[in-house]
Structures are given as C-alpha cells and as structure tokens.
From TrEMBL:
Protein name: ABC-2 family transporter protein
Keywords carried by this UniProt record: Membrane, Transmembrane, Transmembrane helix
Spans traversing the lipid bilayer: 20-38, 50-76, 97-126, 138-164, 171-192, 212-234
Species, as recorded: Clostridium beijerinckii (strain ATCC 51743 / NCIMB 8052)
C-alpha cells in the first residue's frame, strides 16, 4: 500500500497543480499586512484575533477551493489523459489505488496547513505582539489538526464527482459552487446542515462575526457528506470500466 501512496505523492510533486497551494498563504499575508500597517490594529498583535482571522478565511473560502481543485485533478486528470484506462488493464488492486490517492490528498492537506500555521506564527513574531504562551499555541495547533480532518472529509465528495464524471472540470465547478454558497449560508441557521460551513463553525472563530455554532449538527453533516463521498468513490472506482 505504501508504494502506491508514495507513487501518488511523486506524481503530485511533478504536477504543476502543486502551485495551487500557494493560495493557502494569502490569508496569512493579508492578516500580516493588516496587523502590521493598519493603524487600527498595529498597536499590538493579539494572537487569538490574528489566528482566528486566518483560520476563518482559510475555512470559509481558500482551503475548500484549493483542496477541491487538487482532489478533482488527482482523480479526474488520469481519466482525461486515458492513463486510468491503461492502468485498469493491469492486475492493480483498485481499492489500494483509490485509498492511496485519498492518502496523498490527506498528506497534502496536512503538510500545507501545518506550513501555513507556522508561517503565520513566524510572521506574527515580526510584529509588535503580546506574549505567546504554550497553552495558546497547543490549543491552536490542536484546532489545526482538526481542520486537517475536516477538509479531508469535505474533499471526498469532490473526489466522487471527479470519479463519476471522469473529468477534472465538474469537480472544480462543484467545489467552487459549494464554497461560495457557504458564504451566504454560514451566518444563517442553515449552516448547521451545510457541510461546507462545518470547518468554520468547528474551528476557533470568536470575534469574526459568526453567530450560530451548532457543533453537533455540523459534525453530523460533515460525517454524512464524507460517508456519501467515500461510498460513491468506492462504488464507481470498483466497477468503472
């Protein structure tokens, strides 16, 4: 199984789609500029407010779109280039191939979000800031680990769309539409039932305008969309010609 995962990671590193992850650093850069040069905020950087803005921006728009595009590419590109048709003529375990691609996506999400987090901390130290205690750092790092899981669970339905359509574009259109719909829904009571609102609602976001925090329903919606995406992916991958 590990050789399949390593092969997928190697293919990803060779693909230009990897440059898409640069967009994930935009919330950090914007927050750094705001806290560094805006007179309203630059008197003293408060870590909670600073990190909450970055996490909210990531969870609201940036991360779902970036990881959705990457997932759609990883699954859809091989259909478009007919590589998958050739691969399926060999005695390859399709389930191992499917889960190796999912593991690759999880690896990408984990590495990039951790890099964004530590980049945010480093840039914060360059500004006039309050002291950062270990408890606060651990709290936000644990929140980050949860974010990794949330975005992986969300991305599975995009994988299913790419597998079902055998194309990159439908998956990209799907995830962009779902993410922008979240901008409208996230501040309403419907957010409890909308999976793309879950990463925002289940992560630290105090002081950035979120009103409804239905933790249980958000978790359930996220689990349901993950299971649906995974089930469709397994079914289509197992029997696709």
């Amino acid at each position: 199984m590990m050789k399949y995962v390593l092969a997928e990671i190697f293919k990803y590193r060779k693909a230009k789609i990897k440059f898409c992850t640069i967009v994930l650093f935009i919330p950090t850069v914007i927050s750094f500029i705001i806290y560094g040069f805006n007179k309203k905020y630059n008197s003293l950087l408060l870590w909670e407010g600073y990190l909450n803005v970055i996490f909210s921006f990531l969870n609201d728009i940036v991360a779902p779109i970036v990881y959705g595009i990457i997932a759609a590419y990883i699954f859809g590109h091989e259909y478009e280039t007919k590589t998958m048709n050739v691969m399926f003529t060999y005695p390859i375990n399709r389930m191992k191939l499917l889960f190796s691609k999912l593991a690759c996506i999880l690896y990408i999400i984990a590495i990039t979000l951790i890099l964004v987090f530590f980049t945010s901390i480093i840039l914060g130290f360059l500004l006039k800031h309050e002291s950062l205690n270990m408890d606060l750092l651990i709290y936000y790092f644990i929140a980050l680990l949860k974010m990794i899981l949330y975005h992986f669970m969300l991305v599975c339905i995009t994988c299913a769309v790419a597998i079902y359509s055998k194309n990159v574009l439908p998956g990209i259109i799907f995830v962009i539409s779902a993410t922008f719909a979240n901008i409208v829904i996230v501040n309403t009571q419907l957010s409890a039932f909308y999976p793309w609102s879950a990463p925002v609602l289940l992560s630290p976001h105090e002081g950035v305008g979120r009103i409804f925090i239905p933790y249980t329903l958000s978790t359930i919606s996220l689990v349901v969309i993950f299971l649906i995406g995974l089930a469709i992916s397994i079914k289509k991958y197992r029997y696709v010609e």
